[in-house]
Structure formats: C-alpha cells, structure tokens
Design brief:
The complex is a heterodimer of chains A (368) and B (391). Chain A has 368 residues and is mainly alpha-helical. Chain A has two domains: 100-152; 158-367, MetI-like fold (Orthogonal Bundle), CATH 1.10.3720.10. Chain A is built from 15 helices and no strands. In chain A, helix 7 (160-186) packs antiparallel against helix 14 (316-324), helix 9 (209-223) crosses helix 10 (232-258) and helix 10 runs antiparallel to helix 13. Chain A is flat and about 115 Å long. Chain B folds into three domains: 8-49; 79-176 and 239-386, MetI-like (MetI-like fold), CATH 1.10.3720; 177-238. Chain B has 13 helices and eight strands. Chain B has helices at residues 7-14, 16-49, 79-111, 117-131, 135-149, 179-209, 216-233, 258-285, 288-296, 301-331, 335-338, 343-354, 357-386; strands spanning 157-159, 163-166, 169-172, 174-175, 240-241, 244-245, 250-251, 254-256. In chain B, helix 1 crosses helix 2 (16-49), helix 9 packs antiparallel against helix 10 (301-331) and helix 12 (343-354) runs antiparallel to helix 13. The mean pLDDT of chain B is 83. The chains are: A mainly alpha (368), B mainly alpha (391).
C-alpha cells in the first residue's frame, strides 16, 4: 500500500476583477480588446488635435459684442457672435415692426407655455381644450392687433420664430382631425371612400413638400373665384395642413390597426352604431396608442416649416437669410446658422426625448 | 295591405347597403362639384390673366440656360428638354446620395453598437445632431461654406496632384472618352448578369450533387472581370483628361459644381443619420442565439454572417431603408433653394417665365410619383423574395 497522498491545497485563484465601478467600465468599454484600445487612442488623439482649435474658435477668441470692426479684425480666427448680438431681433422676429416686437415675444411665450402644459400627462383633462382656445386667441390678437389699442400688423410682416411656431401648431392641430377622417375612410368598408382616401394619402406622401408649397403659392390663387384673395400665410398654412394630414392619417391608421378585432365585435354586440363605435370605443384607444407618433409628427412639422423660406416667407430660417442680406455681416453666416441650428436642435431634441419617455410610460400602462 | 309608395326607399336607406350607397354617392357628388367649381375658377382666372393652358408650351424654346446638364442643352432647346435635364440632374444627385448615404449610414449604425464607448458616443452624437437640424439649414450652410470659405479657383486646395477643391467646385481627372471606355462600361451589366448566372448554377449544382462550388470569389471575379475585359478589348485606353490650375481657373478634367456638391453632402449626411438608425435596429433585431446556433453547427464567422445574420437583419433593414431612399429623392427637391438645376428648379424657372403653374406642378408630381411607383414595385418584388416562408 502506498502512502496516502498528502492534501496540498492549490494556491487560491485571484479574485475576479471588479465588474462594476468606473475603472471596470473604462477597462471594458475603452480598453476591452487590442482593437478597442487602438480605437480609443485614435479617437483621443483626434480629439486632442481637433477640439482645442474648435473651442478656441467657438469661445476663446470669439467676439461677443456687436462690433463689426473687431469681427473684421479677427478675420474668422474666432467666431463673430457679434453678428448674432447685432441681428438677433431680426432673426427671431423677422420684419415685425421693431417697436412692437414684445408682442410676438409674448405671443410665442403663451403658446409655448400651453405646449409645455399639454406635455404633462397629469394635465390631460377637458380644460386643456379651453387652454388652447385661449392661447391661440391671444396669439392671434397679439400678433395681428387692430383691437385693444394694439396697432394692426399685416400677416406679411410676421416672421421669425413666431411664424415657425404658428405654422407648426396650425399644421399639426388642423391636420389631426383631417388625418383621423382620412384614416377612418381608408379602413372603411365603403370601396369608393377607401379608394379616394388611399389615393389622396399615397399621392401626397409621394411628392415632396416643396411641390405642395409651390401649389399653395402659385396654384391656389388660380383656384379661387375671381376677385377673392387669400393672403400667402393662409395659403401656405393650408398647404402644410393638407400635406401633414396625409402623414397624420398613416399615424392614426397605425393605432387603428393595433386594436384587436374583439373591440369592434364587442361594440357591435352592444348594438353601437358605426359612429358611436368609433367615438366611444375605437378612437379613444387608438389615439392613446399613437400619442408618441403625434409628438414625432409635431417634430417633423416643426422641421418642415423651415421649407417655407423657399416660397419667400421669413420664418426662422428665412429671417436669418434676411439678416445675412446685410452685405457687411454676410461673411459671418456660419455663426448665424449655428445659432438657429442650436434653436432647432434644442426644440427637436427635447421633443424626441419626450416622445421616448412618453412611449415608455404608455407601454407601462398597456402592459399592466 | 298596400304599402305606401315611399316605403321601399325608406327601407333601402335603413340597410347597410343603402346607407353605404348614399354616403358614397354624396362623397362622389361633393368631389365632382368641387372639381367642377375649381376647374371653372381656374379657367376664369387663366383667361383673366391671359395665361395659356395646356402642355403646348413644352415644345417651345425655353430661353433660359441651365448651369449643368448631363446632355447637350442650350436656351434654344425646348422646355421639354429642359425638364429632361432637370429629371436627369435629380436622378444623378439622388443616386449618388443613395450610394454614399448607405455606406456612411451603415458604418455609423455599426459604430453605434461598437464596444468602444468613445466611438459609440461619437456616432450617437452624429445621429442626434444631424437628425434634429432641418435639412434646408444644413444645405444653406454647406452651400455657403463651399462658395464663401473655400479659396478662389486660382489657388485651390489640392488633394494629391490631380484633385482640386475651390470656390468653383471639385475638379478631378476623367477618362478621355473613347470606344474602349464604352466597351468597359458595357462590361458592367454583363459582368453582373454573369455573376448572377453563376450563383444560380452553383446553387443548382449544390442541390443536385451536395457538393457546394465556391460561391463568392468566382462571382466577384466575373462581376469585376467583365468590365476589365471590356476595357482590354476596347484597346485599353489610358488617356485621362487631367485638370490643371490656370491663371484664372482650374481647366480640364471633370468638375462637380458647388451646388451639386453641397446638395450631395447635405443629403448624404442627413439621410445617413436615419439609415444608421435603421441599420442599428436591424442588427439588434437578430437574437444572439442565432450566432450561437450557427457556431454550434460549425459555421465559420464569414458563413455565419452571410447565411444566418445578414438575411435576418436585412429583412428588418430593407423596407425602412427603401423609404429613406425615397425620402432622399424627395428631399433632393430642396435643390431649388441653393440653385442646383433639378426638376423642381427647372419648373420654378418655367413658372416664373410663363405662369403655367398648374402644368408645371403636375409635371413635378408626375416625376416623383413615377419614381415612387417604380421603387414600390421593386420593393414588392424584393419583399416577396425575402419574406419568411411559413411551412
């Protein structure tokens, strides 16, 4: 018999490296593999090369006060924010009379406040409709004046951010009811209505917005009875509404299709008429499902309004081009475009984050 | 008991069919009435403004010049030819944009899934910024950068020895056109057809014998070899028209105008952000178990990608990708804002000349709807091909 093998414990293995914490995150996400480490080094090198000059241009050697001589002397070695400081009122309010510009400011503030209230789900009550009626009424009163001792301002002079906001809200608000009707028609059992709705939706979705704006600006005047005139703002707004309605119809249709067939059958079993079924059973559920889709539509309408500058309207983009028409400041266009790009970005980014958040929240409801 | 005379009508209206009939008759009536009214108004207005109607103007000389045309055009040519130039320009920028945006978007979409946090952050920032700034602002900014910040044509930026970038655009070498190049170009479709034919043959053979002939390399060789063969057969021309800096301008070579370049860059950058999101969601849509299952079957990494992952990811990616392609094509109409002569710009100029807005808008719509219809047909065919076959 051999002697029993003495028990010799193996040396304990080292504890696993931390899987959480900052150091572990850096190791995993920045230096996880040789390729990863190489990418990190390359990007860090690029940042070290490009970021300091960029920051110097943007902030360090920039001119902040509206001083043309200083901007000129800088010769683009730094940003000339002086252009924005000089022209910001023209960019934000377009050709609206200078002394009256508190009015578009107040009008926009009221509407944006209404928008913020609407964004809070706890405020989704009946009184919200009243808030919007009030907000839009005060917007139009403030903008066009003519009553309450306010001087009258022609719609042709409206411009800048208020115009962008107005076109967005009108385009959105009016296209929702039309879109709902179109979506219902497209899913209807009546072949003629279905065909007409489908034709309209696909036709409009198939052409670029510019075409619709051209139609609104060149063709609409031809369609009106002789002697009747509609100002260009109304025509363009109508064009945007008709365009957006086709997209809205598809958003609503998505909600309608997501509802199980049982809802229709249950409503039929209760003896509800078609309109009652839609009003009491189908639409409330379908529209709740597509609220994030509505927010996304709001976002794209907001971006799309920038196209009206092509048909010579001075929305935010058009007003900047107006400001750049000043030959003296023209060479500082990059600063101007960065300024309005920042405005658009801030609004759109906020909307898209909000839409994400809302989607999660609504999913939580439906999952329960 | 005798029924009152109107009862059948009332009875008819109470049925589903009856009401459906009435609703549709009302809709049709309203449509016809509105159409007649608008037509009537339009005819009146046109008469009052002494604008002619109809498409007769298309045959007349246009009287305007176009900055860039793919085929011979002068102001003495007809409006119809001007429109054709515009359509060709639209298709040119759209096709180039689609290719570039697909490549850039795929890279960025994959970058958003990278292990490296910096790369991921960079790609995410790209997507968020480009998607949330209106395209037209990006186009204006690019156009001004290309026409104002670049050096004058007398001292252009140089890339290598033969590429020049200046206020007058990008100049690059281009083959002196001769029969050889035409033959080489003809080799491209022949090569592609041959590659498809080879793939078909290889598949049939694999199914018949169980032995798989190599699939990738011979097909690639055929697709690339045919143009080269054509070039050789055509006499292997090597003459390039090389641009050179003159005293006033860069001369020779081929040129891309600043309008074309800024439209192309803007469309590519904007659409790539959307394509990146499509690619990312497509890749994420393939469950991780698929890779593991492929590994368990002993497939190599390349085969796993080609036979397991890509077909499943593409099924998710391609439909939204197509709508991005259509969006890019439609967005190319913003060319009118920076003066690139696409079909919308040409129509705009025409409207300013003769006021025939209705006809011009109809023509633009027809062009875009035709493009849409063709894409939709193509997509339908593709979707039927890749749809999951349920057994």
């Amino acid at each position: 018999m051999t002697a029993p093998i003495p028990f010799v414990p193996l040396p304990a293995r080292a504890p696993p490296r931390a899987a959480s914490g900052l150091l572990a995150w850096v190791r995993r996400h920045l230096f996880g593999s040789p390729g990863n480490a190489l990418t990190t080094l390359a990007l860090a090198g690029l940042a070290a090369y490009a970021l300091p000059p960029a920051l110097r241009w943007l902030v360090g050697s920039a001119v902040w006060h509206p001083d043309y001589a200083a901007c000129r002397a800088l010769d683009h070695a730094g940003a000339c924010w002086g252009f924005v400081a000089e022209k910001w009122r023209l960019i934000l309010f377009g050709r609206y009379p200078f002394a009256e510009q508190w009015r578009p400011l107040a009008a926009t503030a009221i509407v944006v406040a209404a928008l913020v209230v609407t964004a809070i789900p706890a405020c989704w009550r009946r009184w919200l409709g009243g808030v919007w009626v009030l907000a839009l009424a005060s917007f139009f009163v403030l903008m066009s004046g003519g009553i309450l001792g306010l001087a009258r301002v022609d719609t042709g002079l409206w411009g800048g951010l208020p115009l962008t906001v107005l076109l967005t809200l009108v385009g959105m608000g009016a296209s929702i009811p039309i879109g709902i009707l179109l979506a219902l028609a497209r899913r209807s059992e009546l072949p003629l209505l279905r065909a007409l709705a489908t034709l309209y939706i696909e036709l409009v979705r198939g052409v670029p917005l510019i075409t619709v704006l051209f139609t609104a600006s060149f063709v609409f005047p031809l369609l009106l009875p002789q002697g009747m005139r509609v100002d260009v703002l109304t025509r363009i707004a109508l064009g945007i509404v008709l365009f957006q309605a086709a997209y809205m119809a598809e958003v609503v249709r998505g909600g309608l299709q997501a509802l199980p067939k049982g809802q229709y059958e249950a409503a039929a079993a209760l003896g509800l008429s078609w309109w009652r079924t839609q009003q009491k059973v189908i639409l409330p559920q379908a529209l709740t499902l597509v609220i994030p889709g509505f927010v996304n539509s709001l976002l794209s309408t907001f971006m799309d309004t920038s196209l009206v500058t092509v048909v010579s309207m001075y929305d935010l983009t058009g007003a900047l081009r107006l400001a750049l028409g000043d030959a003296q400041w023209r060479s500082f266009f990059l600063e101007g475009y960065l300024f309005i790009a920042l405005i658009y970005f801030a609004c759109c980014f906020a909307m898209s984050r909000y839409s994400h958040w809302l989607e999660h929240r609504l999913n939580r409801w439906t999952r329960r | 008991m005798p029924q009152p005379a109107r009862a059948p009508v009332r009875h008819f209206l109470r049925t589903r069919h009856g009401r459906a009939f009435v609703y549709q008759a009302l809709a049709l009536g309203a449509l016809v009435a509105a159409g007649w009214l608008l037509w009537h108004n339009t005819a009146d207005n046109l008469a009052a403004r002494q604008i002619r109607s109809g498409f007769g103007f298309l045959a007349q000389p246009s009287g305007f010049d176009i900055g860039e045309a793919l085929f011979a055009y002068s102001s003495r040519d007809s409006y119809l030819r001007a429109f054709a130039v515009g359509v060709a320009n639209t298709l040119r920028v759209a096709l180039a944009g689609i290719v570039l945006a697909t490549v850039l978007g795929t890279l960025i979409g994959i970058g958003r899934l990278a292990q490296n946090a910096l790369l991921r952050g960079l790609c995410t920032a790209y997507v968020e910024v480009l998607r949330n700034v209106p395209l037209i602002i990006q186009l204006f900014a690019w156009y001004l950068v290309l026409t104002e910040l670049l050096p004058a044509a007398t001292e252009p930026l140089r890339f290598g020895t033969h590429f020049f970038l200046s206020k007058s655009g990008l100049q690059f070498p281009f083959p002196e056109w001769s029969t050889g190049w035409t033959v080489a170009l003809a080799g491209v479709p022949i090569g592609i057809l041959a590659a498809i034919g080879y793939r078909h043959w290889a598949r049939q053979r694999r199914l018949r014998t169980g032995v798989a002939p190599p699939a990738v390399w011979p097909a690639l060789l055929l697709a690339l070899g045919m143009p080269v063969l054509g070039w050789l057969v055509g006499g292997a021309p090597t003459d390039f028209d090389v641009p050179a800096v003159g005293s006033f301008d860069v001369t020779g070579g081929a040129a891309a105008t600043p309008e074309f370049l800024s439209l192309l860059i803007g469309l590519t950058g904007f659409t790539a952000a959307y394509i990146a999101e499509n690619v990312r969601s497509g890749v994420l849509a393939v469950p991780g178990g698929q890779t593991e299952a492929a590994a368990a079957l002993g497939l190599s990494r390349g085969l796993t990608l080609r036979l397991v992952l890509l077909p499943q990811a593409l099924r998710v990616i391609v439909p939204p990708l197509t709508s991005q392609y259509l969006n890019l094509t439609k967005n190319s109409s913003l060319a009118v804002a920076i003066g690139y002569p696409d079909v919308v710009s040409i129509a705009n100029t025409t409207i300013n000349q003769n006021g025939q807005a209705l006809e011009c808008v109809l023509m633009i719509m027809t062009v875009y709807l035709a493009i849409n219809l063709m894409t939709a047909l193509l997509m339908g065919w593709y979707n039927r091909r890749v749809a999951i076959v349920e057994r």
